[in-house]
Amino acid sequence: MKLEVLEKDCYYHIYNRGINGTTIFENDTNKLYFLKQLAKYSKDKISIFAYCLMNNHFHLVIRLNSEEKEVTQAFSNLFNSYAKAFNKQVNRTGSLFEKHFKRIKLKDENYLKQLIVYAHLNPKHHFDLDFKSFQFSSYQTYLSDKETKIERNEIINLFGDLENFIFYHNQKNDFLNETYTFE
Fold first, then answer.
1. Handedness of CA 15, 21, 22, 26 (dihedral sign)
2. H or E stretch covering 141
3. Are 46 and 66 in contact (CB under 8 A)?
4. Which residues are listed as membrane-spanning (predicted)?
5. With 29 labelled, which of 14, 40, 81, 182 sits at a CA distance of 20 to 30 A?
6. pLDDT, tens only, 19-60
7. What is the model's pTM?
8. How far is CA 97 from the centre of its chain?
9. Parallel, antiparallel or unpaired: strands 11-17 and 102-105
10. Which of 67, 101, 63 shows the shortest CA–CA distance to 82?
Protein backbone atom coordinates (compact mmCIF):
# COMPACT_ATOMS: atom_id res chain seq x y z
CA MET A 1 0.00 0.00 0.00
CA LYS A 2 1.44 3.35 -1.04
CA LEU A 3 1.34 5.87 1.77
CA GLU A 4 -0.28 9.27 1.30
CA VAL A 5 2.32 12.03 0.97
CA LEU A 6 2.03 14.52 3.82
CA GLU A 7 1.80 18.16 2.72
CA LYS A 8 2.26 21.27 4.81
CA ASP A 9 -0.99 23.18 5.56
CA CYS A 10 -3.15 20.14 4.70
CA TYR A 11 -5.46 18.19 7.02
CA TYR A 12 -5.06 14.47 7.71
CA HIS A 13 -6.60 11.55 9.51
CA ILE A 14 -3.68 9.78 11.19
CA TYR A 15 -4.36 6.38 12.71
CA ASN A 16 -2.77 3.09 13.59
CA ARG A 17 -3.37 0.02 15.66
CA GLY A 18 -1.41 -2.57 17.53
CA ILE A 19 0.33 -5.17 15.42
CA ASN A 20 -2.10 -8.05 14.85
CA GLY A 21 -4.72 -5.99 16.68
CA THR A 22 -2.84 -6.27 19.98
CA THR A 23 -3.54 -3.90 22.85
CA ILE A 24 -1.41 -0.74 22.76
CA PHE A 25 -2.97 0.96 25.81
CA GLU A 26 -3.43 -1.32 28.81
CA ASN A 27 -4.48 1.42 31.20
CA ASP A 28 -5.12 5.14 31.61
CA THR A 29 -1.48 5.76 32.50
CA ASN A 30 -0.46 4.44 29.07
CA LYS A 31 -2.93 6.76 27.36
CA LEU A 32 -1.77 9.77 29.38
CA TYR A 33 1.84 8.99 28.52
CA PHE A 34 0.99 8.70 24.81
CA LEU A 35 -0.72 12.12 24.90
CA LYS A 36 2.26 13.60 26.75
CA GLN A 37 4.65 12.21 24.14
CA LEU A 38 2.37 13.40 21.33
CA ALA A 39 2.51 16.94 22.73
CA LYS A 40 6.28 16.71 23.17
CA TYR A 41 7.15 15.45 19.69
CA SER A 42 4.50 17.30 17.68
CA LYS A 43 4.94 20.76 19.23
CA ASP A 44 4.68 23.40 16.49
CA LYS A 45 4.85 20.70 13.79
CA ILE A 46 1.12 19.92 13.69
CA SER A 47 -2.17 21.33 14.91
CA ILE A 48 -4.42 18.77 16.58
CA PHE A 49 -8.17 19.00 15.96
CA ALA A 50 -9.35 15.70 17.44
CA TYR A 51 -8.05 12.52 18.97
CA CYS A 52 -9.37 9.29 20.39
CA LEU A 53 -7.31 6.59 22.08
CA MET A 54 -8.93 3.16 22.17
CA ASN A 55 -7.30 0.06 23.67
CA ASN A 56 -5.89 -1.29 20.41
CA HIS A 57 -5.88 1.76 18.11
CA PHE A 58 -5.93 5.54 17.95
CA HIS A 59 -7.21 8.33 15.73
CA LEU A 60 -5.74 11.80 15.25
CA VAL A 61 -7.14 14.60 13.11
CA ILE A 62 -4.38 17.07 12.36
CA ARG A 63 -3.06 19.82 10.10
CA LEU A 64 0.62 19.93 9.18
CA ASN A 65 2.43 23.12 10.17
CA SER A 66 5.83 21.82 9.00
CA GLU A 67 7.20 19.93 6.03
CA GLU A 68 6.58 16.18 5.63
CA LYS A 69 10.06 15.04 6.65
CA GLU A 70 9.91 16.92 9.95
CA VAL A 71 6.39 15.67 10.78
CA THR A 72 7.15 12.08 9.77
CA GLN A 73 10.25 12.14 12.00
CA ALA A 74 8.19 13.54 14.87
CA PHE A 75 5.66 10.72 14.54
CA SER A 76 8.47 8.17 14.30
CA ASN A 77 9.98 9.53 17.51
CA LEU A 78 6.56 9.47 19.21
CA PHE A 79 5.80 5.88 18.26
CA ASN A 80 9.30 4.63 19.05
CA SER A 81 9.41 6.29 22.45
CA TYR A 82 5.93 5.06 23.33
CA ALA A 83 6.61 1.49 22.13
CA LYS A 84 9.86 1.27 24.10
CA ALA A 85 8.17 2.45 27.30
CA PHE A 86 5.14 0.20 26.78
CA ASN A 87 7.26 -2.85 25.96
CA LYS A 88 9.37 -2.29 29.04
CA GLN A 89 6.28 -1.90 31.23
CA VAL A 90 4.60 -5.11 30.04
CA ASN A 91 7.83 -7.07 29.53
CA ARG A 92 7.44 -7.60 25.80
CA THR A 93 9.72 -7.13 22.81
CA GLY A 94 9.24 -6.32 19.15
CA SER A 95 7.02 -4.04 17.16
CA LEU A 96 3.98 -2.63 18.89
CA PHE A 97 2.34 -0.78 15.99
CA GLU A 98 1.56 -1.90 12.48
CA LYS A 99 4.39 -1.07 10.11
CA HIS A 100 3.44 2.47 9.05
CA PHE A 101 0.94 4.86 10.52
CA LYS A 102 -1.98 5.34 8.17
CA ARG A 103 -2.78 8.76 6.80
CA ILE A 104 -5.67 10.04 4.73
CA LYS A 105 -5.65 13.55 3.32
CA LEU A 106 -8.92 15.36 3.97
CA LYS A 107 -10.31 16.89 0.81
CA ASP A 108 -12.75 19.46 2.23
CA GLU A 109 -14.26 21.00 5.37
CA ASN A 110 -17.26 18.67 5.34
CA TYR A 111 -14.95 15.64 5.49
CA LEU A 112 -13.01 17.34 8.30
CA LYS A 113 -16.21 17.80 10.33
CA GLN A 114 -17.32 14.21 9.72
CA LEU A 115 -13.93 12.86 10.73
CA ILE A 116 -13.84 14.85 13.97
CA VAL A 117 -17.23 13.42 14.90
CA TYR A 118 -16.16 9.92 13.81
CA ALA A 119 -13.11 10.08 16.09
CA HIS A 120 -15.20 11.29 19.02
CA LEU A 121 -17.87 8.60 18.50
CA ASN A 122 -15.32 5.76 18.40
CA PRO A 123 -16.01 4.66 22.01
CA LYS A 124 -19.71 4.32 21.17
CA HIS A 125 -19.03 2.51 17.92
CA HIS A 126 -16.53 -0.02 19.30
CA PHE A 127 -17.58 -0.58 22.91
CA ASP A 128 -21.02 1.01 23.29
CA LEU A 129 -19.49 3.53 25.72
CA ASP A 130 -20.85 7.02 26.27
CA PHE A 131 -18.69 9.14 23.98
CA LYS A 132 -19.58 12.29 25.95
CA SER A 133 -17.82 11.08 29.08
CA PHE A 134 -15.03 9.05 27.46
CA GLN A 135 -11.84 10.37 29.00
CA PHE A 136 -9.44 9.73 26.12
CA SER A 137 -10.99 11.64 23.27
CA SER A 138 -10.90 15.35 22.64
CA TYR A 139 -14.70 15.73 22.81
CA GLN A 140 -14.75 17.02 26.41
CA THR A 141 -11.95 19.45 25.57
CA TYR A 142 -14.33 21.28 23.24
CA LEU A 143 -16.88 21.69 26.03
CA SER A 144 -14.30 22.97 28.51
CA ASP A 145 -12.87 26.42 29.09
CA LYS A 146 -9.53 24.98 30.21
CA GLU A 147 -6.38 25.80 28.26
CA THR A 148 -5.63 23.18 25.62
CA LYS A 149 -3.35 22.34 22.72
CA ILE A 150 -6.43 21.35 20.68
CA GLU A 151 -7.41 23.94 18.06
CA ARG A 152 -10.77 24.42 19.81
CA ASN A 153 -11.81 27.84 18.47
CA GLU A 154 -11.01 26.98 14.87
CA ILE A 155 -13.17 23.84 14.99
CA ILE A 156 -16.03 25.43 16.93
CA ASN A 157 -16.11 28.09 14.20
CA LEU A 158 -16.06 25.35 11.54
CA PHE A 159 -19.24 23.91 13.07
CA GLY A 160 -20.73 27.41 13.43
CA ASP A 161 -20.78 27.47 17.22
CA LEU A 162 -20.58 25.14 20.22
CA GLU A 163 -24.31 24.32 20.06
CA ASN A 164 -23.97 23.10 16.48
CA PHE A 165 -20.83 21.15 17.40
CA ILE A 166 -22.79 19.30 20.10
CA PHE A 167 -25.86 18.93 17.87
CA TYR A 168 -23.82 17.39 15.05
CA HIS A 169 -22.30 14.83 17.44
CA ASN A 170 -25.71 13.94 18.87
CA GLN A 171 -27.21 13.54 15.39
CA LYS A 172 -24.46 11.12 14.36
CA ASN A 173 -24.79 9.31 17.71
CA ASP A 174 -28.54 8.92 17.16
CA PHE A 175 -27.79 7.49 13.72
CA LEU A 176 -25.54 4.86 15.33
CA ASN A 177 -28.31 4.02 17.83
CA GLU A 178 -31.02 3.54 15.22
CA THR A 179 -32.15 0.04 14.52
CA TYR A 180 -33.75 -0.82 11.26
CA THR A 181 -36.39 -3.45 10.70
CA PHE A 182 -36.82 -4.92 7.28
CA GLU A 183 -40.15 -6.32 6.24
1. positive
2. helix 139-143
3. yes
4. none
5. 14
6. 998 999 999 999 999 999 999 999 999 999 999 999 999 999
7. 0.90
8. 15
9. antiparallel
10. 101
